[in-house]
Amino acid sequence: MRKRLLRQVVQENLATIDGRHPAVQRQRRESLRRWLRRALLLAIPGAFLGILVLAGLAAGLHPGWVLGKGGFSGESGAPAQIVPLVKPLPGRGSGREAGDAAISAQRFDAPRPLNRSALPLPVRTVVLDPGHGGHDFGTIGPGGLAEKDVALDIAFRLRNLLADQGFAVLLTRERDDAVALDQRAAFANACAGDLFMSIHVNWIPNRTARGVETYYLGPTDDPFLTTLATTENQDAGYSLSDLKRLLEGIYADIRQDESRLLAEAVNGKLYQSLAISNPRLVDRGVKRAPFIVLVATEMPAVLAEVSCLSNQEEARLLADTGYRQLIARSLFAGIVSYARTQGPRYEKGS
Amino acid sequence: MTDTDSILYVGIDLGTSRSAISASNGQRHVVDSYVGWPVDMVARKILKRSVLVGREALENRSMLDLRRPLERGLLKEGSERDAEAVRQLIKHLLALVGVSEDTRADTQVRAVVGVPAEALRVSKQQLRNVVKGLVDGLLIVSEPFSVAYAVDALLHALIIDIGAGTTDLCVMNGRYPTESDQRTLLNAGDWIDEQLFKLTQAHHPDANFSLFMVREWKEKAAFVGKAKAPVVVTAPVKGKPTQLDITEELRTACEGLVPPVAETMIDLIARVDPEYQEKVRGNVVLAGGSSGIAGLDKALQEALKEIGGGRVQAVKDPVFAGCDGGLAIATDADESDWEKLTS
Predict the structure, then answer these.
(1) Is B260 within 8 Å of A285 when comparing Cβ atoms?
(2) Closest Cα partner for A151 from A312, A307, A288, A330?
(3) Does ipTM surpass 0.90 in this model?
(4) Can you tell me the distance from the alpha carbon of B101 to that of B87, in angstroms, rounded to the nearest whole number?
(5) Alpha carbon distance A270, B332 (integer Å)
(6) DSSP 8-state class, residue A221
(7) pLDDT tens digits for A252-308?
(8) Burial of residue B26, with CB atoms counted within 10 A of its CB: 0-12 exposed, 13-18 middle, 19 or more buried
(9) Contact, A246 vs A190, CB < 8 A?
(10) How many inter-chain contacts (A to B, CB under 8 Å) are there?
(11) N or C: which end of chain B has fewer CB within 10 A?
(12) pLDDT one-digit tens code per residue, B223-242
C-alpha cells in the first residue's frame, strides 16, 4: 500500500511541476458531471432533450472536447458533431483506455501557475447581491422575518461602509424586486466589478444549528449543498446554449483561487466579529458549491450565509439593526482585508 | 550523483508557528517560524548577524524587521520579503541538520515538505520556487498524510492535525487523500490565542500583555473541560507585576476549538463507506503542535458518541510526527521518482 501511495504522491507532484491539473481536479470534473446530470434532469423540461444532453455530457463534455460548430442544433433537435481537440495518442492500449491516457498526457495541460503578486490589481468596484427579492422571500424566520429583507438591509449598510472608503459600489437590486440570477451575474459583469458578494441568510433543518459560512465556486459531493445549490439556482434564467460557458466558468482556476481567498477573508472576519455578540456562534467554514451567481460572474465571487434564520436566537439577533450593522461591518472588514492583498491603492477607489 | 552515502533525506514540517525537521542522519530540530533582519546599522552591529531565525529572532524582535512568513502553513502571498524569510527558515533548518553551503557540494539533499491539506496549486508552486538551490529534490505532501505515514494510520483512520494556523482533518482510505477526504479549518492555535487575548483583555482591562505572552500562557496550560489547577499568570498592571487568574478565559478559548473540529470530524466520518465507518471512528489520531491541549482527545471522543462512539488518540510526539512522516516518505520513495523530482 505504501508503494502505491508514494506513486500517487509523486504523480501529484509531477502534475504540479508540469502545470497540469492534478488528479484531484480531474475528480472534481467527475463530481461536477454528477451534479450537472442531476441539475439538468431537474431543470430541463422534455425528456428527449435531457437524454441528448446527458449523452453529450457522458461522451462529449470531457474537457478538451468541444461541441461542434453551432453546439446543439436547435432546428433539427439533433446534437451537433462532437470534435476532439487532440487526437488520441497511438499506444498499446485501445479505445477508451488509450483515449484517457492521451487526455491525461495532453488535454489537461494548463497554463503554468501565475504568481498573483505579478498582477497587483487594486479592487475598485464591488458588486453586492442581496439574495432573493420580490415574490421570492428566501427563508423566513420564526417571527416572520424574511431573508430577502435582511439581505437587502445588510447590503445597504455594507454599501455605505464601502463607499466611505472610496469603493464604487453597485447593488444587483435596490428594491424589493425579483431579479433573475442570470441578470444579477450579467449586471456584475457589465459593470466590470472587481468583486462580487452575494448576501444570504441560512436555513438549516436542525433548528439548534447556527453559524456563518461562506461559499466560493466549485462542485460539491455534499448532498445538502447540492440541494441548497439546486434551490438557490432556481429561476436562473440560463438556457442550454449557456451550458459550455457555465462549465468553463466553474473551472476557471485562478478566479477560483482568488474567490477562495476572498471567502476565507470574509468568513474569518464574520466569525471573529459576530462571535462576540453571539457566543455560541459556530464557524461553519469556507465551502465550495456551484451557485449560479458564482458560476456566471467573471470576477472573484463569494456567497456569504451571514447567520441562520432557522435558529430562534439568531433570528432574534437578525431582527436587531445593531446586529445587522455588525454583520455589514464584518463583511466590510473581509473585503478590505482581501483588497489589501490585491494592490497598493484600494482605499480611495483610485 | 548516485552514491547513496552522499544523499541526505529530510522531512520538514513547515508550520505557521513552529517548523520542524527530521533528517536521515538522525538529527531532529524544531524552531519558531520567525525570521528577522536588523532594522539598521546599529542593530546589525549589536546583533552581529545579517539575519536571525527562530527564538533568537523573537527575543531580539525590537531590533528586527521580524517576519512570521507562513500564514496558515503556507508562504504569505505578494511579499518578496516573506518569500525570502521562508527561504532563510528552510536554510536554517537544513543547517541545523548539517547542510551548509560547504557540504552542499558533497551531499545531495532530498526533502519532503508537508503543507496544509487544502493548499492551492499556486502555493505549492511558490514553495518550489523558494527552495530552489537549497535542496536537490522536493516532494510536497499533505501534512496530515505525512502524519498518517509516520504513525502507520494509512487505512481506515482519521487524522486531525492541529497547527497554529490551520487544523487539517483527513480521512485515510488507503489512497493518497483527495479533496473530498480532507478539510482545513482556520480554527487552530493562533485562533485560540486571539480568543484568549480578547477574553483576558475584557476581564483584566488594566493589565498590559502581548499576543506573544498570551501564546506562552496557552502553551503552558491549555485545557478543555475541568481545570486541574487554577491558571495564574503574571502581567504588569500599571507597571506593577500582578498575578491574574485566567482559568476561565483559557477554558473558553480552548473549548471554542471543539465544536468546529468535532462537526468536521463527524462530517468526514459520515462520508466514509458505511462498512468502514466504525473502524475510522475507532482510529482517530490527534497530532500537530497545538494538539497538546489537555482533555481535547476526551472532548472529541465525547463528540463521537453522537455517531456511535469511537476512540481518539494523541500521537506521542506531536511536534515531530509530521516531519518524521516526511522523512519516512523521503526514504521510501524510489530513486527513479527522486530523479523526476529534481528541484
Answers:
(1) yes
(2) A307
(3) no
(4) 14
(5) 44
(6) -
(7) 455 677 888 899 999 999 998 898 888 888 888 888 777 878 888 888 999 999 999
(8) exposed
(9) no
(10) 101
(11) N
(12) 999 888 999 999 999 889 99
